[in-house]
């Protein structure tokens, strides 16, 4: 129970000076001018009580809080005045009780709000601390993921380099093999010519006996074949150098048709049998780009096309077409391989997503291709049907 409900009220608390100034004159007029008001202790609050005055007690909560005194008023009038004063005092008690209850309720609500505010402030502080900790952990994890992703990108590049190296080694070993064989044979032929000096008889007899006409003719053929083999090796090295962009500036004008041919020459070195290329290349304007990145892009897409055909288990074709219009350069690479479902297309550009068997790749080919295209402000899209094939469409904008 609040303090306002169980306290003992004093008359001067219920009737302050302002209230007495309003009530006193009115009661004096009603009681004939002789009127006084005292509290329960006899302290006069209004008027001058006479010794012979009659008094009426003002009782609240079983105890008097004051007295009405008058020597001129009749007992009935004084009793009526007492009832009027009691009504006023009870109304004032109710008002003060309600006011006190309201103030105490407001104070309690304020204290409750202060406690809630303190609790929310504490919760906010904990949240900020937790948020900061989580942010630091997220940054750390993002950094670790980026580092691992970069490591996987490098692993993919190394895998591509390894495949290129294997293909190039095979291509170079073929001409090297027959050049070595030709030189060994030619060395024996030179030995035949050396025998001519010690052969008995005339020079003509020795020439005929050693069959040097055949050796001379075959030796020339061997040299011609060896020269062609060395040209083949030089062409492979030139293609590899062009593909890797050795000695090129970071950015330059490039003919994307040449970049496509260079990428195809790299893929051909390791291409399974039964797959062939078909070109439909129209003249293209020069395109400012990073040629090394563009070559990597074309290599990834074309190699994917070749692998898709190989996975189908049947012969197939990779068709490469290019054209230009007023908006830019359009390139399409179509294969007749296994194709992809709509769900697979939806994930095709996600890093590390692959439809190939475990250990056959880490799924970064198309993700890397998309990054290269976007770095050149271009677009890349897929159109594919299972067991029919896939078309990769590339667009590179050119300045007007």
Question: What does this protein structure show overall?
Answer:
This protein is an alpha+beta fold and 400 residues long. Among the domains are: 3-114, no CATH class; 250-400, 2-Layer Sandwich (Heat Shock Protein 90), CATH 3.30.565.10. The chain has 10 helices and 11 strands. Helix 4 (75-195) runs antiparallel to helix 6 (212-244). The chain is rod-shaped and about 190 Å long. The relative contact order is 0.06. The model has no long low-confidence stretch (mean pLDDT 80).
CATH-level-2 architecture of one domain: 2-Layer Sandwich
Portion in beta strands = 15-25%
How many strand units?
Answer: 11
Share of helical residues: 55-70%
How many alpha or pi helices? 10
CATH class of one domain: Alpha Beta
- Could you give the order of the helices and strands? HHHEEEEHHHEHEEHEEHHEE
Looking at this structure, what is the CATH superfamily of one domain?
Histidine kinase-like ATPase, C-terminal domain
Shape: rod-shaped
Strand sequence of the main sheet, in spatial order? 6-8-9-11-10
Spans of 5+ residues with little confidence (pLDDT < 50)? none
Radius of gyration from the alpha-carbon trace, in angstroms: 55 Å
Largest sheet entry: 5 strands, mixed
End-to-end distance: 87 Å
Task: Average the pLDDT over all residues and give the rounded result.
Answer: 80
Q: What structural category arises from helix and sheet content?
A: alpha+beta
CATH topology of one domain: Heat Shock Protein 90
């Amino acid at each position: 129970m609040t303090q306002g409900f169980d306290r003992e009220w004093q008359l001067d608390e219920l009737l302050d000076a302002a209230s007495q100034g309003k009530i006193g004159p009115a009661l004096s007029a009603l009681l004939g001018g002789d009127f006084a008001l005292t509290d329960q202790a006899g302290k006069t609050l209004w008027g001058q009580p006479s010794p012979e005055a009659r008094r009426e007690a003002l009782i609240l909560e079983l105890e008097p809080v004051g007295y009405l005194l008058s020597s001129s008023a009749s007992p009935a009038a004084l009793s009526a005045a007492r009832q009027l004063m009691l009504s006023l005092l009870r109304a004032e008690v109710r008002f003060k009780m309600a006011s006190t209850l309201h103030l105490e309720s407001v104070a309690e609500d304020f204290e409750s709000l202060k406690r809630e505010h303190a609790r929310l402030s504490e919760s906010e502080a904990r949240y900020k601390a937790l948020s900061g900790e989580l942010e630091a952990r997220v940054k750390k994890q993002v950094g670790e993921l980026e580092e691992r992703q970069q490591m996987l990108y490098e692993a993919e590049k190394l895998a591509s380099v390894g495949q290129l190296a294997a293909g190039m080694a095979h291509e170079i070993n073929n001409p090297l093999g027959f050049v070595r064989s030709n030189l060994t044979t030619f060395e024996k032929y030179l030995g035949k010519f050396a025998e001519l000096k010690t052969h008995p008889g005339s020079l003509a007899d020795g020439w005929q006996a050693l069959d040097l006409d055949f050796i001379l003719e075959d030796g020339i053929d061997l040299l011609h074949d060896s020269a062609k083999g060395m040209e083949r090796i030089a062409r492979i090295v030139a293609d590899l150098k062009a593909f890797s962009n050795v000695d090129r500036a970071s950015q330059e004008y490039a003919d994307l048709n040449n970049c496509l041919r260079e990428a195809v020459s790299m893929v051909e070195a390791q291409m399974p049998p039964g797959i062939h290329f078909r070109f439909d290349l129209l003249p293209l304007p020069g395109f400012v780009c990073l040629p090394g990145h563009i070559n990597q892009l074309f290599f990834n897409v074309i190699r994917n096309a070749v692998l898709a055909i190989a996975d189908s288990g049947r012969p197939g074709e990779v068709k490469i077409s290019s054209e230009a219009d007023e908006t830019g350069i359009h390139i399409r690479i179509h294969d007749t391989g296994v194709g992809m479902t709509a769900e697979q297309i939806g994930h095709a550009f996600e890093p590390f997503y692959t439809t190939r068997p475990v250990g056959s790749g880490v799924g970064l080919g198309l993700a890397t291709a998309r990054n290269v295209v976007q770095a050149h402000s271009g677009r890349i899209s897929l159109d594919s049907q299972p067991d029919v094939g896939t078309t990769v469409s590339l667009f590179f904008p050119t300045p007007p």
